[in-house]
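Quick question, first post here. What does this chain look like in 3D?
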Amino acid sequence: MNYENNLLWNDKMVAYSLCMSPSWVRGERYKRRHSLPHQLDIDPVLIGSKPLYVADEIRAFIANRKAARTTN
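> Answer (accepted):
Ran it through. Tokens below.
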């Protein structure tokens, strides 16, 4: 799938980019909202009640994870 031109990503698009499941993304959002330990530290933008993520923030999250992995 090519999401390069999309500015906002839904849970499925984020999950695909992270090689995770959409339920993992939803779980991470729940944990973050309830101050539980979590890994995905990006707040979604709510359009109505639909949470969407800024694509550049997800790309930066991935880049930071890659950089952290190579420095350890």
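The first strand starts at residue 8 and ends at 9.
Residues 8-71 form one domain.
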